[in-house]
Design brief:
Blueprint: E1 2-9, H1 16-29, E2 33-38, E3 42-46, E4 49-53, E5 60-68, H2 71-79, E6 86-92
Length: about 100
Amino acid sequence: MKKFMFLHFGFEKPTPEIMEAWHAWFESISDKQVDQGGFGGGREISKSGTRDLPWNMESITGYHIIEAESLDAAEKLAQSNPFIASVRIYEVRSM
């Protein structure tokens, strides 16, 4: 089994319907989930300086690490996610 990270992008004020959809999705992947977390405010540090990151549709708002056989299988799980803007999937490699 391989591990994949889902990065969730986009923020809008949660409604009861959004929360219900997320809870249903969490239950649907519970047997494949390894870890999860959310983000709050953040900063970007670059050679040109530091800036506070906005909390909007381009924000990374959370992550999930799941186990799946392949990138295609992970994508299938992500397609059922009630994402706000998008989900990016990366294979997690051991170092």
